[in-house]
Structures are given as C-alpha cells and as structure tokens.
Write a structure and sequence with these properties.
mainly alpha, 0% strand, transmembrane helix, membrane, cell membrane
C-alpha cells in the first residue's frame, strides 16, 4: 500500500522550480527573522537595559545597544532592592503551592474517578460549578477565613500558609486529573485489587506512575501561576520580608530606585522562568501531547 504524501498549497513539482524555491526560501527566512525578533527582542532589550545607565534608557531607549555596560545595576537590584530575597520567597511560595495543588487535586480526582462513592456525582457537579465563578468573588470570604481559621481560631496573615492552602483548591486541576484517571483502563485497578492492593497502593503503584505526563503539566502550570500571582499575595503578605517578586516589583517602581535598577530587577525576575521552560520544554510539550489518555 503506497504511503500518502503530505500535500500543501504548492505542489511538489512547483517546489522543484528554481524561482519557487528561491521565493520560498526568502519567505521562510523573513518569517524566521520576524519570529526571532518578536520572541527574543523584548527579552534581549530587557537584558541590555538591566546593565545600561538610567539616562540612556530614558533619552534613547533603542540606542542603549551602544551604551557602556554597568554591571553594578544587577548587584544593586539583587541586594539593595532585595530582589534576591523576593525571588527566594517566590520559590518557596511556588513549591508550597505546587505541593498543595498536587495533594488536593490528586486526592479529589482519585476519589471521584477510581473510588467512585455514591455521592461522587454531586461533588463533581459542585466542583464544576466553581469554574463558573470569578476568582475575585471568593476573595472576601477567603480573606476572612485566613484571618480567623475555623476551629483553630488562628490567623494565617503574613505566613506562607495563607498562600499555600488556597492554592490547593483548584477545580480546573481536579477536573483535568479526573478526566485523565478516567482514561486509565479499569482492568489495571481490578488486577491490583485481586492481588490484595488497597486504595493507597493502587494510587501509588498504578495510577500515579501512569499519570506522570499530566502531573508534569500541572506542576509546571502551578509553578507559573504561582510565580506571576500578584493580588492574593499582596493582600495576605503585608510583611516585605515575605513578599514575592510579583509584589516587590510594583513597590520598587513606586519608590525612588533608579530606572536602571528597576530594569535589572525585572530582568532577574523573568529570566528564571524562561530558563526553566527552556530546560523542561520537552517534558512539558510531551505531557500536553499525552494528557488526553492512556493506551489500553
């Protein structure tokens, strides 16, 4: 059986013509240049602005490529503007929020998809209903809960727990994980049950190993979401020593810091997630591609 060839706008015979090949090469080269400039241009400009004098940034923003480098801006942003401490707080918040998200989402999805209690459809419907509520609606009751935790009667204000705990209540992650768990063949769980495995062993030995792609996607999405979260950390973390970089940068902009130091702080805050995505992009894209189900 002959293999079907991939078809395009231009036929294979036309592609072999010298004139068509030339124009195709020019168009592809121009498109590649546009993509590189639009994708890397802002990042490269921010990198150059972070080591340029403030006067040059203000007077001629596009002429800073020829200005002398002032590497002291990075040191001032890291130590003087306390961006290093804010980045450390951001990492702590991102790790804690990701763990909270994984624990709550995996437990809820396993309950609804594998254990399937009689009241499971009602709980699943309630979780789906929360997706239609704007996040701002829950800010006031959630903030009041943080100020006076039920039963414990303690305040989580100015603690990392005030950011970690609400991050676990993600209806989107529960729905995505439940759909993935539903695609795992039931024969695997039934075979494990026959071998004497309980729910905890089924989760750890069967479900989680098969769910590594979607778990990787959720981890990356949780880290990125926590990294750029602004409003909620600003409300519950009033202590500057605990604030993440997303809250510290606007405060730095409203202060008396030079513009060059502000640009250095911005560059330091964006280069870390860019590097992380560049390192783990293969795992992320593979996880997105295989998140639709498991082959039986």
């Amino acid at each position: 059986m002959t293999e079907l060839k991939e078809r395009g706008v231009v036929s294979a015979s036309d592609r072999r013509r010298p004139l068509v090949r030339t124009w195709f090469g020019i168009a592809q080269t121009a498109l590649l240049i546009v993509l590189i400039v639009s994708g890397l241009g802002p990042l490269l400009w921010a990198a150059k602005a972070s080591v340029s004098p403030s006067n040059d940034i203000v007077s001629d923003p596009m002429g800073i490529w020829f200005s002398p480098n002032d590497w002291g801006n990075l040191a001032l942003a890291w130590n003087g503007a306390r961006i290093g401490q804010s980045l450390g707080n951001t990492v702590i918040l991102a790790v804690g929020s990701t763990l909270s998200t994984l624990i709550v989402s995996v437990a809820a999805a396993f309950l609804l998809s594998v254990l399937r209690p009689t009241w499971g459809p009602w709980l699943s419907g309630a979780i789906l209903a929360t997706l239609f509520l704007p996040g701002v609606v829950s800010f006031v009751p959630l903030y009041l809960t943080i100020l006076d935790m039920p039963l414990l009667h303690v305040s989580l204000q100015d603690t990392f727990w005030a950011v970690w705990l609400p991050a676990g209540a993600s209806a989107f992650n529960v729905v995505v994980l439940k759909r993935f768990f539903d695609s795992i063949p039931r024969e695997y769980m039934e075979a494990a049950t026959i071998d004497g495995a309980g729910p905890l062993r089924i989760l750890t030995l069967v479900v989680l190993p098969l769910s590594r792609p979607i778990l990787g996607v959720i981890v990356l999405l949780s880290i990125v979401g926590s990294w750029k979260e602004f409003l909620w950390p600003m409300l519950v973390l009033s202590n500057p020593d605990l604030q993440p970089v997303s809250v510290m940068l606007p405060r730095l902009a409203t202060g008396n810091s030079p513009l060059a130091v502000q640009m250095a702080a911005v560059f330091l805050s964006i280069i870390i997630p860019v590097v992380l995505f560049a390192i783990f992009q293969k795992q992320f894209l593979r996880g997105v591609g295989t998140a639709g189900g498991v082959k039986g």
